[in-house]
Amino acid sequence: MNNKEQLLRNIGVVGFTMVDLALYLDTHPTDRKALEYYDHYVRIKRKLNAEFAQKYYPLTLSDVNCDNSWTWGEAPLPWEGGCD
């Protein structure tokens, strides 16, 4: 597995964890430990998304770095092998 695939896998794992924690927090909104875990994973996901966007292309609009140019359209489309 190359670095790009590993980063995407890690982003997916962290995203899944965040959804799972969000479901728990829907029924336990005052659980301090769960809130801390969620916040922790939010920071990790932001860091991973920023790293991926810097090395490859942005995965979400909030990951676009438009200092020099608009980078949103840089990802390969599915028919160009973007789903491999």
Question: Would you mind describing this structure in some detail?
Answer:
There is one protein chain. This protein has 84 residues and is mainly α. The chain has one domain (3-78). It is 58% helix and 0% strand. It has helices at 3-27, 32-55. Helix 1 (3-27) packs antiparallel against helix 2. The two termini are 12 Å apart. The mean pLDDT is 90.
Q: How can the largest sheet be summarized?
A: none
Oligomer: single chain
Low-confidence stretches: none
Measured by DSSP, the beta-strand proportion falls in under 5%
The topology string of helices and strands comes to HH
The count of DSSP E runs of length 2 or more, i.e. the number of strands, is 0
Instruction: Give the number of domains.
Output: 1
Compute the separation of the termini in Å.
12 Å
User: Whole-number average pLDDT?
Assistant: 90
Give me the Rg, rounded.
15 Å
Gross geometry: elongated
The proportion of residues forming helix, as a percent range, comes to 55-70%
- Secondary-structure content class: mainly alpha
> Number of DSSP helices?
2
Brief summary of the model shown:
The chain is an all-alpha fold and 84 residues long. Helix content is 58%, strand content 0%. The model has no long low-confidence stretch (mean pLDDT 90).
Notable characteristics:
mainly alpha, elongated
Describe the secondary structure blueprint for this structure.
Layout: H1 3-27, H2 32-55
Helix pairs in contact: 1-2
